Structures are given as structure tokens and as C-alpha cells.
Automatic annotation (TrEMBL):
Keywords: Methyltransferase, S-adenosyl-L-methionine, Transferase
Annotated SUPFAM superfamilies: S-adenosyl-L-methionine-dependent methyltransferases
InterPro entries (UniProt xref): Gly/Sar_N_MeTrfase, Methyltransf_25, SAM-dependent_MTases_sf
Any single Gene Ontology cellular-component annotation: cytosol
Boundaries of every Methyltransferase domain copy: 47-155
The name this protein goes by in its record: Class I SAM-dependent methyltransferase
GO biological process entries: methylation; one-carbon metabolic process; protein homotetramerization; regulation of gluconeogenesis; S-adenosylhomocysteine metabolic process; S-adenosylmethionine metabolic process; sarcosine metabolic process
Entry GO MF terms: glycine binding; glycine N-methyltransferase activity; identical protein binding; S-adenosyl-L-methionine binding
């Protein structure tokens, strides 16, 4: 009897598959650069990608001449960002640093800090199969305080979060080509409004073999009011929700130190 080979992908690789489908990357990068221009951010400015993941959009920004440093608490992600950068012959400074430790590593040196890809809500639960909502709230608050601490006076903080109107749902993200052939990706989003927990499961189906894999992630169901409260408590000013061309997945907030 033939042995069916199992297939293994890391979460960073699976996130990379999703990014291919959920963004028109060029449109989003152009949208971000438009924002930079409006906010006085130039190629001389120093930018922090806090929770850089596998390198979107930091690698693209570096390719376009911007000075971006990446940090992430996941050593798997830091490995992936280096692999992705090397494939594109880009050099990136990326550190394995938790948001809570940013102020220990950096002074107030950044003109712009962004934390995107709906990352903040995973502050105390990424790559874990459990979540304690109260711990997540503490870690989210500490993260925002640390973002504030590493900004220069007048510097800008960009944070995106789960869409305000999101309802629990299942969504076909599309089909990606991998070295094992085509893979269909489905996202399932569940909300536990009482516990304030959001479960996001990425389900993969390998079309050739029929093999299925599921990657659940648990996050804090952060409301926009809570996010704005944390911004205010951290002493950020001019807090506003903004629109970025090409950002159709998450809601974006901006604050100024
Ligand atoms: C959904 S991924 C998004 C990655 C990337 N920002 C993007 O837009 O593709 C979430 C990222 O947040 C990072 N992260 C979560 N909690 C963190 C923390 N407390 N400190 C630093 N990074 C964290 C994870 O390791 C992961 O790389």
C-alpha cells in the first residue's frame, strides 16, 4: 500500500500564503507611502515595524529606499523575515524582541512605528494554544506604552485592528500554489463575546492529496473604544481612525507623541 506523505508548514509560511491572497501588495505599499508623505515621513526617517512577522511590508519599503527596522517576539517569524529578505536580495535589521521590551532595547529614536496585520490583539497569545484575556489586555497596554516610548516627540504610531463590524464567519481566501501543488485556504472566525476571545482558524486543503491542516490562533477581542483608551492612557495625541488605500482587511488608527 502506498504511504501518504504528511505535509508540514510553519505558521509563518502559512501566513505568507494568506498575505498573497488578502492583499494587493503594490496597492497597499503605495497607500502606506501616501500616508508617509502626508505625515512628513521621508526616506531619512527611521521606521519601526513592531511585529514584523515574515516581512510584509518592511521588505518592500526597504526595497523602495525607506529605513525600516523589524522586531518580533516569534523567533520563527524572525527566521522567516530573514529568509524572505535574502530571496529578494534585501538586507533587513530584524530582532527577536517582544513589544514589552522595546523601550529596553531602543531609545526614543523612531519617527514612525507601525504594528499591523491585526497583530496587537495577539500580544500575549501568538503561537500559543491558549489565551488568558486579562493577560492579553495587560500586554496590549504595555505594548502601546512601549511604542510610545520608542517614538521621537512628534512621531506617529500606526496600529491596525480587527474590523469593527466583523461577525463570526467562514471565508474562502483562495487557492495558492505551493511545492506540494495547489492549496485551498479557508478562514474561520469565531467570537466569544463574553470571554472577549476571537478564534481565527486557517484551514488548508491540499487539492492533490486531499490532506487537510488547521492552524487555530486565539486573540483578544479588542474593541475600538478600548484601543483608543489605551492610546490616550499612553499619552498619544490626535488619535484618529484613518483610511489607507489597499487596506481592506483591518481598521487603522493613528496617534502622535
Ligand atoms: C498576524 S502576524 C502579522 C505579521 C506582520 N505584521 C504582517 O503584517 O504580515 C502577527 C505578528 O505579531 C507578532 N507578535 C504577537 N505578539 C507579539 C509581542 N508581544 N511582541 C512582538 N511581536 C508580537 C507575532 O509574532 C506575529 O509575527
Amino acid at each position: 500500500m502506498p504511504i501518504t506523505q504528511d505535509i508540514f508548514y510553519s505558521l509563518p509560511e502559512v501566513w505568507d500564503f494568506c498575505l498573497e491572497k488578502i492583499y494587493d501588495k503594490k496597492e497597499y505599499i503605495d497607500g502606506l507611502i501616501e500616508l508617509f508623505k502626508k505625515e512628513g515621513i521621508s526616506k531619512k526617517s527611521l521606521i519601526l515595524d513592531a511585529g514584523c512577522g515574515s516581512g510584509f511590508p518592511s521588505i518592500d519599503l526597504i526595497e523602495r529606499g525607506y529605513r525600516v527596522i523589524g522586531t518580533d517576539k516569534s523567533s520563527e517569524m524572525v527566521r522567516q523575515v530573514q529568509l524572505n529578505a535574502a530571496k529578494r536580495k534585501v538586507s533587513i535589521e530584524a530582532y527577536n524582541t517582544m513589544w514589552a521590551n522595546l523601550a529596553k532595547q531602543f531609545g526614543p529614536v523612531f519617527d514612525f512605528v507601525y504594528c499591523r496585520g491585526n497583530s496587537l490583539v495577539y500580544a500575549a497569545s501568538w503561537e500559543q494554544n491558549w489565551i488568558v484575556p486579562g493577560r492579553s489586555r495587560e500586554e496590549i497596554e504595555r505594548a502601546i506604552q512601549n511604542f510610545y516610548a520608542v517614538l521621537k516627540p512628534g512621531g506617529k504610531l500606526y496600529v491596525d485592528v480587527t474590523n469593527k463590524d466583523e461577525k463570526p464567519h467562514k471565508e474562502n481566501i483562495g487557492i495558492v500554489k505551493t511545492k506540494e501543488g495547489e492549496v485551498e485556504i479557508v478562514w474561520e472566525i469565531e467570537h466569544d463575546a463574553n470571554a472577549k476571545v476571537r478564534t481565527w482558524t486557517i484551514a488548508l486543503r491540499f487539492l492533490d492529496s486531499g490532506l487537510r491542516k488547521a492552524y487555530p490562533s486565539y486573540s483578544y477581542l479588542l474593541s475600538h473604544t478600548e484601543l483608543v483608551d489605551y492610546f490616550e492612557k499612553a499619552r498619544l495625541k490626535d488619535i484618529k481612525e484613518i483610511k489607507i488605500n489597499g487596506e481592506k482587511n483591518y481598521n487603522v488608527f493613528l496617534g502622535t507623541k
